[in-house]
UniProtKB/TrEMBL annotation, chains A, B:
Residues 163-271 form the Acyl-CoA oxidase/dehydrogenase middle domain. The keyword Oxidoreductase applies. InterPro entries: Acyl-CoA_dh-like_C_dom (IPR025878), Acyl-CoA_Oxase/DH_mid-dom (IPR006091), Acyl-CoA_Oxase/DH_mid-dom_sf (IPR046373), AcylCo_DH-like_C (IPR036250), AcylCo_DH/oxidase_C (IPR009075), AcylCoA_DH/ox_N (IPR013786), AcylCoA_DH/ox_N_sf (IPR037069), AcylCoA_DH/oxidase_NM_dom_sf (IPR009100). One of its GO terms (molecular function) is flavin adenine dinucleotide binding. Signal peptide: none annotated. It comes from Oharaeibacter diazotrophicus. This is 3-methylmercaptopropionyl-CoA dehydrogenase. Its EC number is 1.3.99.41. Belongs to the acyl-CoA dehydrogenase family. Involved in the assimilation of dimethylsulphoniopropionate (DMSP), an important compound in the fixation of carbon in marine phytoplankton, by mediating the conversion of 3-(methylthio)propanoyl-CoA (MMPA-CoA) to 3-(methylthio)acryloyl-CoA (MTA-CoA). SUPFAM superfamilies: Acyl-CoA dehydrogenase C-terminal domain-like, Acyl-CoA dehydrogenase NM domain-like. It is an enzyme of class 1 (oxidoreductase). It catalyses: 3-(methylsulfanyl)propanoyl-CoA + oxidized [electron-transfer flavoprotein] + H(+) = 3-(methylsulfanyl)acryloyl-CoA + reduced [electron-transfer flavoprotein]. Residues 283-449 form the Acyl-CoA dehydrogenase/oxidase C-terminal domain.
């Protein structure tokens, strides 16, 4: 039976000591997030994740969701009760607008909580997770009437949300979508079409389900410029705002899939369903991207979360399993063999996962804080700078952290030998669940293209240039530090590789865009290594400072310093290989005719 | 529904043009392997794999093996008929000794055939695959009586074989094993104990199952020096050599696992079962290693095989799926979108899988040829040199090609977006099946230790030194070649990194063995990149020669040259990162106390 302990101490170290949450009390909602309050909230979330959600993870995988002949979907045993408890405790609206019943706390805090939930039970966490994205899109683009009708229910968790983009013939290329919207006389629309891969599309956990649906209004332009966003509830709200008549939307089938069996992945049929326009006609993609960007950060959290829970189990196993002897002689001579944690290759594997997880958590929380600044700060310049960083990091967090989360789950599974392949140990579920995070909300290849094709050139490279300036200052200030110096030197090398790669694109991608496409995935990985390296220097610096001040968390702080060194020695060298691959360009890649593949 | 076409043309190119099988007609059995014969055999194997085995792959996964209350195991529908056809056609004994009914053809050819089988249906292929390993161990170490009794049945495929090593508390560390063997008066033994993870341990495909079982004879020394190998048949052969009384061995349970559902992974209970000693008492590990080494090459083939079939499906999908437009403007303006093969990132992904697959196949066939030389050559020096190479490459083929095969399957799945996560497309099965190859027959971390701890220092480094001499000569002869020169320069850089890593171990691992353990996995990857790079230069050189001679396979040959360039530009840079990681040593890795993990 897998274990899970939410990393509360590590999260508090990041929020309080590294990121300094309390320095942002000028932002709305942050004054309420006192250190005591944050600790209490994280502790409560940890308890719920460990005691309620994690024990449901295996049954969720084994039993999965079941669709009845009438199109109803039953979630795994225990899922519904857990959701009711969660919603009743106000978790869904933790960072939502108090105007709609939310607690208005920092999104940063909600991101931390969502990691715990996702580690404990990724499939379950998707139900409230998608609701949060739908809340964000409605709040940003919905009319006051729509907001008043839907948001209080969704913020309370009484109603859940979904996003409906994909159709059988179109995923990445939404310009091809065919779902139709016909205006009705009362200002609503009749939506007709088939959507696939709709997570949480139908279930028994909430009294209503609010679908956000992309469709094309009759007569709209072709391509992405003719797409609109609609709200289509499962039950039409009656005059009192309570679930009324059944809408013409139903779950036609559940997908049989590799993992996240506890989440209902639905084919959704819209048969003239009643929907209402969100925002302007033909500008649905922009509105959906509000939801998508939120969701992409959430998927990055899922990558981290699976890497974390897989790590915890692998570390526990490595300390428990006795097999063979240390290369330097027996370490447990009283036993028949040594625990496998004595082996450098086992430690190397564990440290590699941990070095990604802890810096990934730092990057997510730092970026979530920038999201709070971007949405809540009073100063335009602060908001813009934070939004630039958020835009630049969104594909990196989604793409890099889900690649690494999956890799971490695979490596953790490997620690178990044959037992890792057997269902009862739970490790193979982490691998199967983690796999989807690389695919949905824009496959990771698309994240690379978003980074290189959109985020880099946007506003004449303003975001990446600001990042380089920040790195230059950061490095210059710490280079001569006797303790941090070696770490900073590695970071500087990584930043240099990233600058070279960026300049290579500037010199070669304009004349041939294939040179950007051929290097986009490696560029994303290169940025990923550099920003995690930056996080490690910040964590090591904080640890050094706290140790000097006599902080009682000495073991944890020393571990941070050693893991920082490990990251620089063992993971940072990848930036050189990324640069070499990027600089190779697209010639060999484009040389073959399509038939040769 | 997934597709599969056996790579007959590529295999013939390797056997005939690159490796020159016909230059080895001095070896027993090779004279029969004329080009026509080889082509006919590969064609027949391809047909069987494509038409019989591949259609059973999904049902094997979906239905799996079922254990009855009486301990019998039913294989998936169609598995048994396919096996009977396969055995009747003589495939099991393709390279086995004619003295026991085998065809005596090169093992090289059998390795090629096993790739086709494993691509088409990995779980099915394990039944005959394990039999071949058991044949090898019995042939090398069994008494004449045992060989006469068992080998003809096993070579004919009428009886299948298994290997029984693992117990609940011992996998890697066989010194801990507890299964007991008590001598009986008639010279046989009574075997008692529990073995786990026994592939093909019980099934309905053959009239008898021959278990090779590691056990400790009563009073034997502790540790690995007290382990003996026994043959324990499911049915005791009667006087006529036919299956007689049921032996006291039974399947206690089937493991519920991540993949290879079509293969029965059994808990085997030995309750005083009758067995006979193979080879000398207490020297069972050496005998088992004959089987294990054969099996490790076979597992490397599985890695390649899953990477190959996954590639084929991803390439077909990329040519078929239309979505978005090329970065350089529409390529299929008459369609709503371009096929995704126009995108550099899609091509990069496909080429990376292909560059590993084709060089992996070359390495496997080259190494299999060295295995034939090691076992069949008349000259002692030839045999020793071939055996040295075989020993050096066995962990690399097992470890590197299964890591890369899994990675290839994951990347191929990624091409499908959400469809890759859904069972009906078959891609997620390739990933789940490929995963086990990194684990069994010695987890890949163990392969790294075998390479660095055993194979490198053996005979004062004779094997690696011979390899470096071969590389030096190979590079020197081709460095100035105008066409091959750039490829050779990349290879030379890789060889240089490998030499530096080897010297680093010599300088640092003696004084602290943890420095070897901390770099073993990276060293294995480093060797893997170098030998695949070597194979690419050989393939490109052959392609160049054949194109110049007007060979009609021009498209294939040009593709080889481009893929060679891709490998050097995009995959070879990893050797520098491996060297950097190895040179970092073990300090940071060993610094933390076990509790800190």
């Amino acid at each position: 039976m897998p274990i899970y302990r939410a990393p509360v101490e590590d999260t508090l170290f990041l929020l309080n000591d590294v990121l300094g949450l309390e320095r942002h009390t000028n932002l709305p909602g942050f004054a309420d997030a006192t250190p005591d309050m944050v600790e209490a909230i994280l502790g409560e979330a940890a308890r719920f994740a460990e005691e309620v959600l994690q024990p449901l993870n295996r049954v969720g995988d084994k039993v999965g969701c079941v669709r009845g002949a009438d199109g109803t979907v039953t979630t795994p045993p225990g899922f519904r009760d857990a959701y009711e408890t969660y919603a009743a405790a106000g978790w869904v609206g933790l960072s939502a607008d108090p105007a709609f019943g939310g607690q208005g706390l920092p999104y940063t805090l909600a991101a931390a909580v969502s990691e715990f939930v996702s580690s404990a039970n990724m499939a379950w966490g998707m139900y409230p997770g998608l609701t949060q994205g739908a809340i964000a899109a409605l709040a940003a683009h919905g009319s006051d009437d729509l907001k008043a009708l839907y948001l209080p229910k969704m913020v309370a968790g009484t109603w859940t949300g979904t996003m409906n983009l994909t159709e059988p013939h179109c995923g990445t290329d939404l310009g091809l979508l065919r779902t139709k919207a016909v205006p009705a006389e009362d200002g609503s629309f009749r939506i007709t079409g088939t959507k696939i891969f709709i997570s949480a599309g139908e279930h028994d956990m909430a009294e209503n389900i609010v679908h956000l649906v992309l469709a094309r209004i009759e007569g709209a332009p072709e391509g992405v410029k003719g797409i609109s966003l609609f709200v289509v509830p499962k039950f039409l709200p009656d005059a009192a705002g309570a679930p009324g008549a059944r809408n013409a939307v139903s779950c036609g089938a559940l997908e049989e899939k590799m993992g996240i069996h506890g989440n209902a992945t639905c084919v959704m049929n819209y048969d003239g369903a009643t929907g209402w326009l969100i925002g302007e006609a033909h500008k649905g993609l922009r509105a959906m991207f509000t939801m998508m960007n939120e969701a992409r950060l959430g998927v990055g959290v899922q990558g981290l979360a699976q890497g974390e829970v897989a790590y915890q189990n692998a570390a526990a196993y490595a300390k428990d399993r006795v097999q063979g002897r240390a290369l330097t002689g027996p370490k447990a001579p009283d036993k028949a063999a040594d625990p496998i944690i004595v082996h450098p290759d086992v430690r190397r594997t564990l440290l590699a996962i941990r070095a990604i997880n802890e810096a990934g958590r730092a990057l997510i929380l730092h970026t979530a804080l920038m999201s709070d600044v971007a949405h809540r700060a009073g100063d335009d310049k602060d908001r813009q700078a934070a939004d630039d960083f958020l835009g630049l990091m969104t594909p990196v967090i989604k793409g890099f952290l889900t690649d690494k989360g999956f890799q971490g789950a695979v490596e953790a599974q490997q620690m178990f030998g044959g037992h890792g392949y057997v269902a009862e140990w739970g490790m193979e579920q982490f691998v199967r669940d983690a796999r989807i995070a690389m695919i949905y909300e824009g496959a990771n290849g698309i994240q690379g293209l978003d980074l290189v094709g959109r985020k880099l050139p946007a506003n004449n490279g303003r975001a990446i240039q600001a990042f380089f300036r920040e790195m230059a200052g950061f490095v210059a200030e710490r280079k001569a530090d006797p303790v941090l110096g070696p770490l900073v030197a590695s970071l500087e090398k990584g930043v240099g590789d990233l600058q070279k790669a960026t300049m290579w694109f500037m010199a070669n991608a304009l004349k041939n865009p294939d040179n950007a496409g051929a290097g986009s995935t490696d560029y994303l990985a290169l940025v990923g290594h550099v920003v995690l390296g930056w996080m490690w220097v910040r964590m090591a610096e904080t640890a050094e400072r706290l140790v000097a001040a006599g902080d009682p968390r000495r073991d944890m702080l020393e571990r941070k310093k050693i893991t920082a060194r490990f990251f620089m020695e063992r993971l940072m060298p990848e930036t050189g290989a990324c640069l070499a691959r990027i600089s190779a360009g697209s010639e060999a890649i484009m040389a073959l005719p399509a038939e040769a593949f």
